[in-house]
Design goal:
0% strand; Arc Repressor Mutant, subunit A; Tetracycline Repressor, domain 2; 216 residues; 2 domains
């Protein structure tokens, strides 16, 4: 690789996070449909022509943003599962706390709301989200549920249903933050909701006689 190509790669690496941060801000403000590539470029401080050197389309920007905000975190969680030595309940608690922190404080919480809002007009966004985020995320939770069942910690129930029960309140947090929070008379206690969800879920999953071991 020549020096010119190396300099371009360094500039590309430096610019990409700026472009994705600008895209997230634009998507949060305008939604996917109303956001234009030149809006993203202007917020990132580059020309419209330059942004196409990094991303060929607005859909490509969204996909890169989803991978950065969600996909990389899922990969990190999966890696932690592989080396986790504790109980399945402790593992599930840890993962739910990580996901809960992400949806209650992270800017990426705007993405699932946007996908739901835009799915009718942009089904390719929903298809990508289903494949790259939902199926991978549910797969993580199903693995933990099966592990707990195999070790006698969790009661028998379809893992695919239990995995969705793990995720559903987190989506409520993301949607509430993006749609309804501005109408709250006082800030909602998202951290308390996540804690209540974890406690309730683990009690519901516990095998007969095991619920006494759940933290109170």
């Amino acid at each position: 690789m020549g020096m010119t190509a190396q300099r371009w790669q360094r500039r590309r690496h430096a610019r990409t996070p700026e472009i994705l941060a600008a895209a997230l801000a634009c998507f949060a403000q305008k939604g996917f449909a109303a956001t234009r590539m030149d809006d993203i470029a202007a917020r990132a401080g580059i020309s419209k022509g330059t942004i196409y050197l990094y991303f060929p389309s607005k859909e490509a920007v969204f996909e890169a943003l989803a991978r950065q905000e969600i996909g990389d975190r899922l990969a990190a969680v999966t890696e932690r599962i592989e080396t986790f030595q504790g109980s399945a309940a402790d593992l599930l608690r840890m993962v739910l706390m990580l996901v809960g922190a992400m949806v209650r404080t992270g800017d990426g919480a705007v993405l699932p709301r946007m996908v739901l809002a835009e799915a009718g007009n942009f089904p390719e966004l929903a298809a990508f989200w289903r494949r790259e985020v939902i199926e991978r995320g549910l797969g993580v939770f199903e693995r933990i549920i099966r592990r707990g069942q195999a070790e006698g910690e969790f009661r028998p129930m379809p893992p695919q249903h239990a995995a969705r029960l793990c995720v559903a309140p987190m989506l409520v947090v993301a949607l509430w933050r993006g749609v309804f929070a501005r109408f709250d008379t006082e800030p909602y206690d998202y951290e308390g909701l996540v804690a209540a969800h974890i406690d309730t879920l683990l009690r519901g999953l516990a095998a007969h006689g095991a619920a006494d071991g759940v933290e109170r």
